[in-house]
């Protein structure tokens, strides 16, 4: 996790102090050079000035160099690869933030490296926007299936959990809720248990320690507090009520199809929503990225997965977040995600138009509720490696959208339902 993920404001002012002067130099440099170098490339690579603070200048420079070297290899007839690389990076930099810059850039680099894959994808263009909407409608997951996968499809009865103890989500130790904020030791593996190639033994993918029930092996992670999740929907309902989107989002929202991703952290009220990201299907632009104040007191930000490590002035109330969501979506907007029931439950929304990539591409047809990970799907269908390095909130949404696009590209209008 880089500092930029945590303190966007701080990062921005660092750029202002340290490198703005160079920005300006590079801009004038570009403008004067552009006319006289129509057929002549420039030697000196300087990123063009943008106001979005997507990344530090040395990083942007490095990316331009990478793009330029790919252009030299893949497009030997391009006379001004450096200029073109600066332009490509600039187009990305000016439309992204420090959150979306890295993934957008990775996508662009991938496309430059594999033009053949996107030529075949060019057949996508035969679908008009209306056709795409029709096709998407035809692959919406039926409500009965959504229910089977844990989506809440009608507002549940509230039923608070009355026991005064909980079992820790991470280490399974039983603890008293009233003592959750008294420091203790919570030791656990944050990774998943995986099977070794011998198919008999297993290991944790966080630290590669063997999973051996006969031996006591010290877990790789340690925290001061135990944590828990609200498991049942009735319990969730008693904390904050579910609402139907057709009752609250009756004004037309801006977007017809959105990728949705929520980040969660542990509080004294369980596992709570802390951030909501929405990405437009057609442009892949992040159209909403809102930090949400939780109800309870924060016990663990779950930073490794949430990318959040502190609460600052940018956090808004849950209700304010719902209002913002109502600006970008409405009751008919198709929502795309992977394992989206977790996000919808965190948002406490009952919504009928869902395309969940984990349901669209199940692991085995025979056991439909066993899911493939988004990382595996993305690798299999898009030959892309995601979720490496810094946490990027838009990355998962974009990956789910691209899997759906892959699916849509291979469909024909008129053959599928309405
Ligand atoms: Zn571990
Ligand atoms: Zn614990």
Task: Summarize, please.
This protein is α+β, with helices and mostly antiparallel strands. It has helices at 3-6, 8-36, 57-74, 81-95, 101-113, 115-120, 129-138, 143-148, 233-239, 245-248, 303-306, 318-328, 340-347, 357-360, 374-382, 393-409, and strands spanning 165-167, 174-176, 186-188, 193-195, 202-204, 210-211, 221-223, 243-244, 257-267, 270-280, 286-291, 298-300, 334-337, 349-350, 354-356.
Characterise the protein shown here.
With 418 residues, this protein is an alpha+beta fold. It has three domains: 3-113, no CATH class; 129-157 and 239-409, Nucleotidyltransferase, domain 5 (2-Layer Sandwich), CATH 3.30.420; 165-223, no CATH class. Helix content is 39%, strand content 15%. It has 16 helices and 15 strands. The chain has helices at residues 3-6, 8-36, 57-74, 81-95, 101-113, 115-120, 129-138, 143-148, 233-239, 245-248, 303-306, 318-328, 340-347, 357-360, 374-382, 393-409; strands spanning 165-167, 174-176, 186-188, 193-195, 202-204, 210-211, 221-223, 243-244, 257-267, 270-280, 286-291, 298-300, 334-337, 349-350, 354-356. The strands form five sheets. Strands 9, 10, 11, 12, 13 and 15 form a six-stranded mixed sheet that branches. Strands 4-5-6 form a three-stranded antiparallel sheet, with no helix packed on it. Helix 3 (57-74) crosses helix 4 (81-95), helix 4 (81-95) runs antiparallel to helix 5 and helix 15 crosses helix 16. The model is unreliable at 1-38 and 120-124 (pLDDT under 50). Bound molecules: zinc ion (ZN) (2 copies). Residues 189, 191, 204, 206-207, 209, 219-220 line the site of one zinc ion (ZN).
């Amino acid at each position: 996790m880089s500092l930029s993920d945590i303190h966007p404001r701080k990062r921005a002012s660092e750029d202002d102090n340290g490198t703005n002067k160079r920005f300006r130099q590079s801009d004038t440099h570009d403008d004067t050079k552009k006319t006289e170098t129509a057929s002549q490339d420039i030697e000196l690579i300087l990123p063009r000035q943008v106001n979005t603070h997507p990344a530090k200048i040395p990083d942007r420079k490095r990316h331009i160099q990478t793009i330029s070297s790919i252009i030299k290899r893949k497009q030997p007839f391009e006379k001004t690869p450096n200029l073109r690389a600066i332009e490509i990076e600039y187009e990305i930099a000016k439309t992204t933030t420090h959150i979306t810059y890295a993934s957008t850039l990775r996508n662009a680099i991938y496309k430059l490296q594999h033009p053949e894959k996107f030529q075949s994808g060019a057949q996508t263009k035969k679908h008009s926007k209306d056709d795409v909407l029709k096709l998407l409608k035809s692959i919406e997951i039926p409500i009965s299936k959504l229910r089977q996968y844990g989506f809440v499809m009608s507002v549940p009865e509230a039923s608070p959990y009355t026991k005064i103890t909980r079992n820790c989500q991470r280490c399974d130790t039983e603890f008293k809720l009233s003592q959750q904020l008294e420091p203790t030791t919570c030791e656990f593996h944050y990774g998943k248990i995986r099977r070794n190639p011998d198919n008999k033994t297993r290991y944790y993918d966080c630290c590669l320690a063997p999973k051996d029930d006969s031996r006591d092996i010290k877990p790789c992670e340690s925290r001061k507090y135990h944590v828990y999740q609200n498991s049942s929907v009735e319990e969730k309902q008693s904390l904050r009520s579910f609402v139907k989107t057709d009752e609250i989002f009756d004004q037309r929202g801006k977007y017809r199809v959105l990728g949705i991703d929520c980040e969660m952290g542990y509080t004294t009220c369980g596992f709570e929503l802390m951030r909501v990201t929405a990405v437009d299907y057609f442009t892949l632009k992040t159209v909403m990225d809102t930090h949400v104040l939780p109800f309870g007191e924060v016990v663990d930000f779950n930073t490794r997965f949430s990318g959040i490590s502190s609460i600052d002035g940018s956090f808004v109330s849950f209700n304010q977040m719902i209002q913002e969501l109502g600006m970008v979506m409405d009751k008919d907007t198709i929502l795309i995600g992977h394992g989206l029931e977790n996000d919808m439950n965190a948002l406490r929304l009952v919504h009928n138009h869902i395309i969940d990539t984990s349901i669209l591409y199940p692991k085995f047809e025979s056991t439909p509720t066993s899911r493939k990970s988004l990382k595996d799907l993305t690798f299999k269908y898009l030959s892309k490696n995601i979720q490496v390095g810094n946490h990027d909130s838009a990355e998962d949404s974009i990956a789910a959208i691209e899997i759906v696009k892959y699916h849509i590209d291979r469909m024909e209008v008129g053959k599928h339902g309405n």
